[in-house]
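name: query_chain
kind: protein
chains: 1
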Amino acid sequence: MNESQITEFNAWIKDCCGTPEVLGHYLDLAVEMLFYVEQGTFEQQELQDVVTVLIEIKRILSF
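structure:
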C-alpha cells in the first residue's frame, strides 16, 4: 500500500467502522459467511454490511 492508500484506508475504517476491531469483526463475519450462507443463517443487514466493507476495501486497495 502506498501512503495515500494507507491514509484513505485509516480514514475509511474510522468513518465506517469506528475502530479496527469493528472492521475485524466484519471480516471475521465475512469469512464465516463463506462457509455457512444458508437461508436464515444471517440477517439481511449483516450480509449487506459485510459486502459493503469488502467492496470498500477492494476499492481502496485497487488504486
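note: The mean pLDDT is 84.
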